[in-house]
DNA sequence: TCTGGGGTCCTAGGACCC
DNA sequence: TCTGGGGTCCTAGGACCC
């Protein structure tokens, strides 16, 4: 009985290396939107002490001086490479859960008994590397939480093959003893503080506590973690690509925005994008939330952050309905005199596009229900936005500084790499 | 000067019911 | 002046993940 976790090594940085062999052994960092902070680092960059999430401006000078290579994020490219990796994995085992852009759980239960899981995993690793250029680590263990521990052990011990089995009690115990509590999957900053206070410092400490007591003092979530550390299986492989429960479109602004006239079209852009995503999921929503906030890092200026949720009597995925709701939500939360740094739209309460739920009363904002109209707009805008809504910002709103983006090597004809 | 974006799950507490 | 007990459902916000 085993699961495996496949984890791409420094995924974004590895992607950037695929078509740039000259970057081998060179420190690489990839930045968030607005080139705000570091969201990925190659091994060399990690060794330089660049921390995950650190603001770029704080490390820029030192990093560049040491000949580091920096990239703005190129999610179109990373997404395409991720899909290729996942595709290969799905060819090896029938049940794969794509957990994130750079991680997947594999169900090894489906394999024959006495199957050599270690060599099989080494083979998977070789093929993924050959076919995509992406190096992966593979951790094998009885449950998800322990596969995460296995991946940590590969990093900690610097396992040369990047594949590790944690299948017998002794190996597991040894790994847990070397794992500090904050590295355990599901234990974040808050829980680490709490647990340290009561003398729980390693994964092994946590595993030795009675799960029922953990439930009483902490939560069911942590109870599950404890059970998994003890070898029980609480979380299953979920390969059901069921639709999302929430859609968020939000951005930090390159420059602060302090008047409604400027903010409104920006929020409209988010609403339009959110509605597009919703339609591509073949869902409708009946709740639209809008939020705004100032920068939590600026303690010299007054801060304000608020969220307003608008319920819709009838589910919709028509951009015009979402725009009306967005406007309705934004007006009461906007306050003049604040420098807003970020805003966003959140869609909730989804229902299937096909099912129709009519309202008992007449909806004053009767949904437009013109699916053909939206379909045409989606088709026209598929490659590049050509049709805008009147309330949008048509200036291709993007005060985002992203000057260091690599080409869309694999998804755009005009940016394909050339071979001389 | 400059600090990301997109998700999931759980829980406490309010609103409401009989 | 005195004001119950036991539920369900929903939502906002917290904690966590990558």
Features:
single chain; 420 residues; DNA polymerase, domain 1; 20% strand; globular; DNA-binding
Summarize the structure.
The protein is an alpha+beta fold and 420 residues long. Helix content is 38%, strand content 20%. It starts with a strand and ends in a 39-residue tail after the last helix.
How does this structure look, described?
The structure is a single chain. The protein is globular. It is α+β, with helices and mostly antiparallel strands. The model has no long low-confidence stretch (mean pLDDT 92). A five-stranded mixed beta sheet has the order 5-6-1-7-8. The chain has a four-stranded antiparallel beta sheet with strand order 9-12-10-11. Among the domains are: 94-229, DNA polymerase, domain 1 (Orthogonal Bundle), CATH 1.10.150.20; 247-380, DNA polymerase, Y-family, little finger domain (Dna Ligase, domain 1), CATH 3.30.1490. 38% of the residues lie in helices and 20% in strands. Strand 5 and strand 6 (103-107) form a beta hairpin. The chain has 14 helices and twelve strands. It has helices spanning 11-18, 43-47, 56-65, 75-92, 117-132, 144-157, 169-177, 189-197, 203-207, 211-217, 220-229, 260-280, 319-333, 371-381; strands at 3-8, 28-31, 38-41, 69-72, 96-100, 103-107, 136-141, 163-165, 247-257, 283-294, 305-316, 340-352. Helix 4 (75-92) packs antiparallel against helix 5 and helix 12 runs antiparallel to helix 13. It binds a DNA duplex (18 and 18 nucleotides) through residues 31-37, 39, 53-58, 60, 73, 75, 99-103, 185-191, 219-221, 244-252, 254, 295-297, 307, 309, 341-342, 344, 401.
């Amino acid at each position: 009985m085993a699961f495996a976790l496949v984890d791409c090594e420094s995924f974004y940085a590895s992607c950037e290396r695929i078509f740039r062999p000259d970057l081998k052994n060179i420190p690489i960092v990839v930045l968030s939107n607005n080139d705000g902070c570091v969201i990925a680092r190659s091994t060399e960059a990690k060794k330089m002490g660049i921390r995950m999430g650190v603001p770029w401006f704080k490390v820029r000078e030192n990093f560049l001086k040491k000949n580091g290579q920096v990239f703005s994020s190129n999610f179109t490219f990373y997404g395409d490479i991720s899909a290729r990796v996942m595709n290969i994995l799905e060819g090896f085992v029938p049940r794969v859960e794509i957990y994130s852009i750079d991680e997947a759980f594999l169900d090894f239960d489906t394999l024959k008994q006495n199957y050599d899981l270690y060599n099989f995993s080494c083979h998977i690793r070789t093929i993924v590397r050959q076919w995509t250029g992406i190096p992966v680590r593979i951790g094998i263990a009885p449950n998800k939480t322990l596969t995460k521990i296995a991946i940590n052990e590969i990093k900690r011990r610097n396992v040369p093959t990047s594949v590790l089995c944690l299948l017998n009690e002794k190996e597991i115990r040894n790994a847990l003893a070397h794992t500090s509590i904050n590295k355990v999957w599901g234990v974040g900053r808050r829980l680490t503080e709490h647990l340290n206070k009561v003398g729980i410092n390693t994964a092994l400490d946590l595993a030795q506590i009675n799960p029922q007591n953990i439930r009483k003092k902490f939560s069911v979530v942590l109870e599950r973690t404890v059970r998994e550390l003890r070898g029980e299986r609480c979380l299953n492989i979920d390969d059901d690509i069921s639709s999302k429960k929430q859609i968020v479109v939000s951005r930090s602004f390159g420059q602060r925005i302090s008047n409604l006239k400027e903010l409104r079209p920006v929020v409209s852009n988010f609403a339009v994008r959110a509605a597009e995503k919703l339609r591509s999921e073949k869902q409708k929503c009946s709740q639209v939330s809008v939020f705004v906030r100032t920068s939590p890092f600026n303690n010299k200026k007054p801060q304000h952050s608020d969220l307003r949720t608008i319920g819709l009597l009838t589910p919709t995925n028509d951009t015009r309905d979402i725009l009306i709701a967005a406007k309705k939500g934004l007006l009461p939360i906007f306050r003049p005199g604040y420098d807003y740094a970020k805003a966003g739209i959140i869609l909730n309460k989804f229902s299937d596009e096909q099912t129709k739920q009519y309202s008992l009363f007449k909806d004053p904002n009767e949904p437009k229900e013109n699916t053909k109209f939206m379909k045409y707009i989606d088709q026209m805008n598929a490659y590049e936005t050509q049709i805008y809504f009147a309330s949008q910002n048509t200036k291709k709103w993007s005060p985002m500084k992203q000057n260091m983006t690599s080409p869309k090597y694999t998804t755009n004809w005009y940016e394909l790499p050339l071979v001389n």
